[in-house]
Amino acid sequence: MLTRLVPPSSLPVDLAEFRSHLWTVFEGHDDDPLLTTLLEAATGRAETILARRLITQTWRITASGAATGIVLPFGSFQAVSGAAWSVDGSTWTTIDPSLVTVDTTTVLAVANIDWSGIDTAKVAAARVDWSCGYGNSPADVPADIRMAIKQLAAHWYRLRAATTLDDDEGVAKVVPFAFSALLHSHRLNFIG
What we know:
By secondary structure, the chain is α+β, with helices and mostly antiparallel strands. The protein has two domains: 2-54 and 136-184, Orthogonal Bundle (Hypothetical protein yqbg); 57-132. The protein contains four helices and ten strands; from the N terminus they run βααβββββββαββα. It has helices at residues 15-22, 32-50, 143-158, 177-184; strands at residues 2-6, 57-64, 70-71, 77-86, 92-94, 100-103, 110-113, 125-132, 164-165, 172-173. The chain has a five-stranded antiparallel sheet, with no helix packed on it. The protein has a three-stranded antiparallel sheet with strand order 3-7-6, with no helix packed on it. Helix 2 packs across helix 3 and helix 3 (143-158) runs antiparallel to helix 4 (177-184). The longest helix has 19 residues, at 32-50. The radius of gyration is 21 Å and the shape is elongated. It starts with a strand and ends in an 8-residue tail after the last helix.
């Protein structure tokens, strides 16, 4: 089970930068709540496609039993901030952080817990808390990812329906190709 413990402190693209990207929406415009929602949605879409979290945030993963090799499901791993085990899923015993090692040589980081001294037959669940993201500031996120977010949010702002037909040609307008192209080099690829 995945739980976000600490959300990101900001979006990768702030409202002023997005307004500037649009050229037509300025400070104090009535569309600010909509623009923020579009930025949040575009950020979520980019994070899903990339299998990464962009701005630093803290997550918890809970696994059954005395798990070893717990895959931390988002790229841009930063650090493990805690680990614990439980016999019943409600009372947790902290694991010394020095007993948790993380292999970052794989596509996704893998947390390994040293279970020495713990009767693993009694362990019903284990959990690991970790932080991930490029950094705390929008400037830490690669420029091409930030551009992709602005382009997708701008596309949604201009075309408010799920699909829109081009008036001249009757052709459905889709998400700009540049969105995928800009994200491509940062996407985690999984085999198998």
